[in-house]
UniProtKB/TrEMBL annotation:
Pfam families: MotA_ExbB. It is a multi-pass membrane protein. It comes from Xylanibacter caecicola. This is MotA/TolQ/ExbB proton channel family protein. It is found in: Cell membrane; Membrane.
Length: 281
């Protein structure tokens, strides 16, 4: 079930990001075509063609952004996506999508793992005190989550010494704890990768700025600003992606701690119930 959820969410996310990337690349080609046309017209009508063309090239994305401001949030994000270099922005978006996929899968799994522990233990105690151990096992089998699984493991050894029961519960509890944390490593990896890709885009943008300065043979604020804009946009998106994933990751850790606490309390309560039932005999 968990693998199915992960695959579905991941597939839909990839389709979404590929659609945005393809659209962005198409828009980039259109903008570049408009830039070339603008550069040709300027070169024919102005004696200072080089400086004017570089200025038009740097300002063209801003004009494109202004033209699409009325398109809403989606248009604005797409414009910034194009301005930040489609290649690096796609990698950052992919890291965000992969991280969110694992976050959603973990949240669904942990939400389904939470139960009313107090009611479960009360039902188990009532069955055990009545001598109906099989009925208590049935309750655990019909209840989802690691808490019920731990209780079932303890009830499987009610006729054995208390040390064996405790050892079995502790061992199985370690397995369940590992299942709760499954996939969290990938989330932390995406949290680290997203800003790193943004910083890499920053370095590439600065290199582009210096290349434009070298080509123009002059240090123009407009030329430097164009390259720095690309650099800063990739950094911003990388940091935003990492912040989003960090919020989800902390929420997941909180739910894992809560379920782990429930498991420990249930284990202690189950041992007390078994001890009471033996004393009652």
């Amino acid at each position: 079930m968990n693998r199915l959820i992960t695959r579905v969410v991941f597939s839909l996310s990839l389709i979404f990001i590929f659609t945005i990337t393809a659209t962005a690349q198409g828009d980039t080609v259109s903008v570049q075509t408009e830039q070339k046309t603008s550069q040709t017209d300027v070169a024919e009508t102005d004696s200072t063609a080089t400086d004017t063309v570089m200025t038009a090239f740097a300002e063209a994305p801003e004009d494109y952004a202004t033209a699409t401001d009325n398109g809403g949030l989606y248009k604005s994000i797409k414009v910034k996506f194009i301005e930040g270099n489609v290649g690096f922005m796609s990698l950052v978006a992919l890291a965000l999508i992969i991280g969110l996929t694992f976050c959603i899968e973990r949240i669904i799994y942990l939400s389904l793992s939470e139960i009313n522990t107090r009611k479960l233990l009360e039902d188990i105690e009532a069955k055990i005190m009545d001598g109906d151990v099989d009925g208590a096992k049935s309750i655990c089998r019909e209840t989802r989550g690691p808490v019920a699984s731990i209780c079932y493991q303890g009830l499987m050894r009610t006729d054995e010494p208390m040390e064996n029961i405790e050892r079995s519960i502790v061992s199985y509890g370690s397995v369940q704890s590992a299942n709760l944390e499954k996939g969290c490593t990938w989330i932390t990896l995406c949290i680290a990768i997203a800003p790193s890709l943004g910083f890499l885009g920053t370095v590439v943008g600065m290199v582009m700025a210096f290349e434009q300065i070298q080509t123009a043979g002059d240090i123009s604020p407009t030329i430097v600003a164009a390259g720095m804009k690309v650099a800063l946009i990739t950094t911003i998106f990388g940091i935003i992606a990492a912040l989003i994933l960090q919020v989800f990751y902390n929420y997941i850790l909180t739910k894992i701690e809560h379920i782990t606490t429930q498991m420990e309390e249930a284990a202690i309560s189950l041992l007390d119930i078994i001890m009471k039932s033996r004393q009652a005999r």
